[in-house]
Fold this sequence. Notes:
By secondary structure, the protein is of the alpha+beta class. It has helices at 17-25, 76-90, 105-109; strands at residues 2-7, 37-43, 46-56, 59-67, 95-101, 114-119, 122-128. Helix 2 (76-90) links the parallel strand 4 and strand 5.
Amino acid sequence: MIQGKWFAPGENLSDGVLPVRLAVFGISGDPVDQAGWNALVFADGEPAATGRIWWEDGVYWLGSIGVVSPLRGRRLGDLTLRLLLYKAQTHAAREIRLICPEDTEGFFSRLGFRVIRRDHGQSEMMVPGSEVSLDSCASCNKQDCPNRK
Length: 149
Ligand SMILES: CC(C)(COP(=O)(O)OP(=O)(O)OC[C@H]1O[C@@H](n2cnc3c(N)ncnc32)[C@H](O)[C@@H]1OP(=O)(O)O)[C@@H](O)C(=O)NCCC(=O)NCCS
C-alpha cells in the first residue's frame, strides 16, 4: 500500500524524511526544514520517497525530491512531485521553482516545468502556478479507460 504524510515546518523529521533524504542525497536536516513543508511517501509501511516545499523571496521552491534507489521507477517520485505541486496550489503559488540535476529535467518537464538556467550540470526550472495541471488524464490517450466513460 502507498501512503503519503505531511510534516509541518519545524516538525520532527527523524523518523522518515531524514533517513530517506540521507539515503538519496547524503544530506540531513537544515534550516530550510524550519520554514518548509516536507512530504513523505510510504510503500508498504516503509519510508520510500520524500520532497519539500518552502517559500523564499516571493517564490515557492521545491527540493530534496528523492526516492530510495530500490523503489525507483514505480511512480513514487511522480506521487511526491504531485503532492508538492498540490501544496503549492493550495497556497495559490504564482511561481514554483526547483534546481535539479540536468538528467532529471524530463521528470519535471512532464508536469510543466521549463528550464530557465543551466549551470555545471544543474538546471533551474520553473512553472507558473497558473500552468500547474495535476490532471493525469489530460495527456493520456488510452481510449478504453473507465475514467473516460
Ligand atoms: C528523479 C526521481 C525522483 C524519479 O523518481 P521515480 O520514482 O524513479 O520516477 P517515477 O517512477 O515516478 O517516474 C514518473 C515518470 O517520470 C519519468 N522519469 C523518471 N526519472 C526520469 C528522469 N531522470 N528523466 C526523465 N524522465 C524520468 C519516468 O519514466 C516516468 O515517465 P512516464 O510518466 O512516461 O511513465 C528519482 O530517480 C530519484 O530519486 N533520483 C535521485 C534524486 C534526484 O536526482 N532528485 C531530483 C532533484 S531534487
